[in-house]
Amino acid sequence: MNFENIQSQTDNGLTTITINRPTKLNALNKATISELHDALEAADQDKNVKVIIITGSGEKAFVAGADISEFAHFDVKNGQKLAAKGQELLFDFIENLSTPVIAAVNGFALGGGLELAMACHFRVASDNAKMGLPEVSLGVIPGYGGTQRLPQLVGKGRAMELIMTAGMIDANTALNYGLVNHVTTQEELLPLAQNIASKIMRNSSVAIKAAIKAINANYKEGVNGYHVEVEQFGECFGTDDFKEGTSAFLQKREADFPGE
To answer: What is the CA radius of gyration of the chain?
Structure first.
């Protein structure tokens, strides 16, 4: 699969997707969103892929925002269509992907860039990372899930302040807020993400898929997360991974999960 705006590489069950628009600080445009969707879908459908990492090329930016030139002339209808399509095609798509997605945030993650990182299952950051949702400084609000996911991650008050001030926070503040899980040097960012991915890959991909579904259910309106957990817990008992995992435990050996 050939891409113009991203690079996708798979090695030993790990797919690394790099947003590669360095002259635009990796800003998201329609073409990049579409390519990200295609690359993520291909990785998710590949049974050999156990974890996905998303990062940005260069040292300056993960994603410095959306490509404003694409929508500066939009009217109300087109603005709503832009947000709805983007959320469906990429941001909600990532959140509900059955393959774990780690955001490795290097440099600026602003606007759509932070929204992309927040849609991933969790985030690690380099110590030069800067994060924020500056949309109100342009007379608009975050449209790719930012007003929903940021409060879930950092709390309502902090989210209100960050969005209303259009300010940026550094990596250590993001760590303190719970927005990222780990902070490291830029040189160690991908190795850290890869190390976490290797730990995930030792476990049952079927159980991880069920866990993602159950965790996400808690944040969906009208859905009882406890009921989803019970359902998914029970479904695990009918899998080959459950048979292998329990057998390995009882036999005091390392499990070799078939992923089924």
So the answer is: 19
Taking the CA of residue 175 as centre, how many other CA atoms within 13 Å lie in the half-sphere pointing to its CB? 14
Measure the CA–CA gap between 115 and 92, rounded to whole angstroms. 10
Distance CA 118, CA 254 (A): 33
- 259 part of a folded domain: no
pLDDT band at 68 (very low <50, low <70, confident <90, very high): confident
Instruction: Give the residue-averaged pLDDT of 19-46.
Output: 95
- pTM of the entire predicted model: 0.95
Q: What residues act catalytically? A: 115, 135
pLDDT digits (tens, 9 = 90+) for 80-130: 999 999 999 999 999 999 999 999 999 999 999 999 999 999 999 999 999
Q: How far is CA 92 from CA 96, 108, 115, 220, in A?
A: 6, 22, 10, 12
Q: Residue 21 belongs to a domain with what CATH number?
A: 3.90.226.10
Range of the domain at 192: 6-201
